[in-house]
Write a structure and sequence with these properties.
Blueprint lengths: L1 E8 L2 E8 L3 E6 L5 E6 L8 E6 L2 E5 L14 H6 L16 H7 L3 E7 L5 E7 L3 H8 L3 E8 L2 H15 L7 H9 L4 H20 L6 E7 L7 H4 L6 E3 L7 E11 L2 E5 L11 E5 L8 E3 L7 H7 L1
Parallel strand pairs: 11-14
Antiparallel strand pairs: 1-2, 2-3, 4-12, 4-15, 5-6, 7-8, 7-9, 9-10, 12-13, 13-14
């Protein structure tokens, strides 16, 4: 089974899997979910996407089941992928009709703050307003503008980066490190509100049309609360990498694709402490489920 990543539909996250015979299957990641899996070596192409309209897209599997070459795609699938064009649409890049229809729907501009205080500006289409931030793994976030289409919102996004220095991407490794030792929630909330206020002030003074400044805060999923809370018990980085071997975890909380997990031993009892594991690192990996465990004994002395 090929992992396509962690997705959030409504308030329920899942690990999305793909097989040529069965298509997509979602494995629920609720509190208490047990994951036992073995990862095969290698990183594999996820195929490409054809966008037909605002709520209509088709996943096209990689014809050759090829190794990944560019991100999580082979060269051929990368070249055929409609979604790669959306980030340059507002600069005049020609896009297919279906992608244009998707981009011309209303969009939101948001400011998201993560557990270490890193803050970014980003965009979400109207139907993905909440889910986009849930999948990003934000601790606190604010919507700062509602734009009539994806061209306008991306012009605003670039302007915020240029004028205020807010980045448009926070790396997964930074998110994981922040969740091992998160800053105090009240501090992160104040930081997010401060950045959001600066963005609203900038946008409020522009002569542009096609958008409205808004004041609305995003509601974090309850499943993320324990992971995003400072001082919630002893926690450590997950003591293995998801590029090979066996892994066994029990999910206690989930923020984006990052889990706060217990590690069962051979008898099914969890060892002391909790572990922060980036399940997003499984994306593009081929796995098989089973009664697998994370190798623990040689690590305990160094962890504790």
């Amino acid at each position: 089974m090929l992992v396509h990543g962690v997705v959030w539909d409504s308030s329920s996250p899942s690990l999305r899997m793909f097989t040529p015979d069965a298509g997509f299957t979602d494995i629920a990641l609720a509190r208490g979910s047990a994951l036992g899996l073995r990862v095969a070596p290698g990183l594999w192409c996820l195929g490409h996407t054809k966008v037909h309209g605002p709520g209509d897209r088709t996943h096209v599997p990689c014809r050759g089941s090829s190794p990944a070459e560019r991100g999580k795609q082979c060269g051929a699938c990368f070249a055929r992928d409609d979604s790669r064009l959306m980030h340059d649409f507002h600069r005049g890049t020609s896009v297919p009709a279906g992608l244009r229809a998707y981009l011309m729907q209303p969009h939101w501009l948001y400011v998201a703050t993560f557990a270490n205080g890193a803050t970014k500006v980003g965009t979400a289409s109207a139907p993905r307003k909440w889910n986009r931030l849930a999948e990003q793994g934000a601790v606190h976030a604010s919507y700062v503008a509602h734009a009539e289409d994806g061209r306008v919102v991306r012009v605003l996004e670039d302007m915020v980066t240029r004028e205020l220095g807010l980045v448009q991407q926070v790396r997964s490794a930074s998110k994981v490190a922040g969740l091992v030792e998160p800053r105090a929630g009240v501090e992160l909330l104040a930081l997010n509100r401060q950045h959001a206020g600066r963005v609203r002030e900038l946008l409020g003074g522009l002569a542009m049309t096609g958008y409205a400044v808004v004041e609305e805060e995003w509601e974090r999923p309850e499943l993320a609360d324990l992971l995003c809370t400072a001082g919630a018990g002893g926690r450590h980085p997950y003591p293995a990498t998801f590029d090979a071997g066996g892994h066994g975890l029990r999910v206690h909380a989930l923020s984006g694709a990052i889990a706060l997990a217990g590690l069962p031993d051979a008898s099914g009892n969890e060892i002391e402490g909790s572990f922060v594991a980036d399940l997003g690192a499984l994306k593009g990996r081929k796995i098989e489920f089973g009664p697998h465990l994370t190798e623990i004994p040689a690590l305990q002395d160094s962890l504790f």
